[in-house]
Amino acid sequence: MGIKDTAETWETLSTRRPFQGAKTAVDSDEVRMPDGSVARRDYQVHPGSVCVLALDGEGRVLVINQYRHPVRRRLWELPAGLLDVPGENPLHAAQRELYEEAHVKAGDWRVLADFYASPGGSDEAVRIFLARDVSDADGERYEDASSEEADMRVEWVEREALVRGVLAGELGNPALVTGVLALTAALASEGGLDALRPAESPWPARPYEA
């Protein structure tokens, strides 16, 4: 039996935008329910994100550590960033983020996983890329002392250690959890990592021009 998500749109009777931020907003929709009643749905409007699971030849994953104010914690995460430009090619955005946050480049790119970060309260779509054949990027290291990157710590960590941290409840960033477990599943599957989708595979949640 094939199981997959399907597109569906319930009738939206009205939309308000009570908050507009620098990168995201909040919309409040009046939605017609299947039984004919009307319900309000408040949610974050988000441009979408890309993440990079960079894997070196020793089976280590590149992770960064930074403070996340909403949850009042320092989290270990994958290099990631927003799709700031409408219609931006997500692969190009991922390559940029890997360079800016870790000064790393990669020769082989695949799509590891696509997911919605919190579909009950946000339309944020996330694409995780697998990057292999990694090496230090050319030129000077990117630095922006005014951004969150100024306080980042970068480490290469064994995949197995990250899996243990996820299962122990010690690592909670959703892209890291999804990426590490998806990588582990892909390694154990027929065809392995070479069977993953090409880097510029279609992404219905955030259409783009290749």
From TrEMBL:
Sorted alphabetically, the keyword list is: Hydrolase
Please give the GO cellular component terms listed in this UniProt entry: cytosol
One GO MF annotation is:
hydrolase activity
For this protein, the record's InterPro entries field holds: NUDIX_hydrolase-like_dom_sf, NUDIX_hydrolase_dom
PROSITE patterns on file? NUDIX (PS51462)
Using the record's annotation, list all stretches that form the Nudix hydrolase domain.
44-180
UniProt keyword annotation of Nucleotide-binding present: no
Q: Which SUPFAM superfamilies match?
A: Nudix (SSF55811)
Q: Which residues form a coiled coil?
A: none
Recorded superkingdom: Bacteria
GO biological process terms, alphabetically, are: nucleoside phosphate metabolic process; ribose phosphate metabolic process
Statement: the UniProt record of this protein carries the keyword Hydrolase: yes
**Mind telling me what this protein is named?**
ADP-ribose pyrophosphatase
